[in-house]
Amino acid sequence: xxxxxxxxxxxxxxxxxxxxxxxxxxxxxxxxxxxxxxxxxxxxxxxxxxxxxxxxxxxxxxxxxxxxxxxxxxxxxxxxxxxxxxxxxxxxxxxxxxxxxxxxxxxxxxxxxxxxxxxxxxxxxxxxxxxxxxxxxxxxxxxxxxxxxxxxxxxxxxxxxxxxxxxxxxxxxxxxxxxxxxxxxxxxxxxxxxxxxxxxxxxxxxxxxxxxxxxxxxxxxxxxxxxxxxxxxxxxxxxxxxxxxxxxxxxxxxxxxxxxxxxxxxxxxxxxxxxxxxxxxxxxxxxxxxxxxxxxxxxxxxxxxxxxxxxxxxxxxxxxxxxxxxxxxxxxxxxxxxxxxxxxxxxxxxxxxxxxxxxxxxxxxxxxxxxxxxxxxxxxxxxxxxxxxxxxxxxxxxxxxxxxxxxxxxxxxxxxxxxxxxxxxxxxxxxxxxxxxxxxxxxxxxxxxxxxxxxxxxxxxxxxxxxxxxxxxxxxxxxxxxxxxxxxxxxxxxxxxxxxxxxxxxxxxxxxxxxxxxxxxxxxxxxxxxxxxxxx
Length: 536
Fold this sequence. Notes:
It contains 14 helices and 21 strands. By secondary structure, it is an alpha/beta fold. A hairpin with a 3-residue loop joins β15 and β16. α5 runs parallel beside α6 and α11 runs parallel beside α14. The two termini are about 15 Å apart.
């Protein structure tokens, strides 16, 4: 790993869905106190930074992505003083902090939106949002045919007859990024947190923000899209990059940007724009060597054309955990905004083998990587949550046809034989906000620590090798000849990764040492659904 390039080009960043990470005060909800108490664990894991999902004041209509005040911490999670202490403590452990920022929309309880409702049609307060009169003789129809990402129309009518746009829930009105107040407010928010020591931001819905001012109806295969990935959004991020560069310590941004092609994604990470963007093509790929190689090649080619590193990810808080996605013989390609309903029951032994191989593949590729909390434990999706406990708005707005994202957000198991498995303290006043499976005792941090065959120890070893080996992190790679179903590549100096996605044994190329294997290797043969790191 190069010691001369900026840290973010090679960083392994751990995603903390704070509500489900660790509960410090016993109310069944994860919080800053719980996260602070687990910093030694994260240091021992070997990650470089934490991306923390929204911790701001919020009514929690969408898990904190409906922000009412970006300069305050929601009492569910703690206080601003605790957040400042977390930043300081994390830095002492050598870990950077990257909170979420949500610029596409805010909460309907935000003071701006409440003022807009009070002020009425045509007011300056409403100009900060996208209010429009309705269609039809009495204005009873939405202004256009746009739909919410969570199901249903993207417009809600207020009592005075106006409609407002919300590409997510009605409790998340979209901001009008044509308005100077919106630009000024978010630039101020960035400075507020940069001055408190955060090391960057993950930008939610970075491909949103700008809408076609004519608000045309959405048609099939429309280019440019009227509300996604419009070219004018990049001017916003050029300004944000200038602000980040004013602060010491190589502050950084990572974009959640869904684009149709890799070249559209590359536009977000040009030298004067954002630093990195999530590589969702890699996450969406099926368990297929050809599909994965295409995602890798396309991403590396387009990102290198603008001098940006790739950023690989297998799971996050919005998708089914990859241990469960891979736990089917027929692994379906994941398609954004389409319910992911896998074929057949999960074979978690199969899913775990593939998840181990996928981790070694991801961590060996050039660039940076993100680990969603619990990936290092091999946690599966909780697919059998009772309907009564589901809280994701996707579940309700889809009329219960889309199970939503609660299954990947179940609180982590830390220790013990019974729930809450160390997630909450012994004297907890409430159960975890989502129920944990009874068999998670065997997947807890305590159960896996010291077991060389465990997923946790695989991650710990891989992350240490990644830090120490000069070939890993930012850089280049060269594909090696391999049969269909096998991915093999070399990185200088002296590193080779092989992943066997076929149904046959594969004889490993010449090497001097096995650095790390996801499973047993007999007589130089790599079993199906396994990966290995080699020296030489």
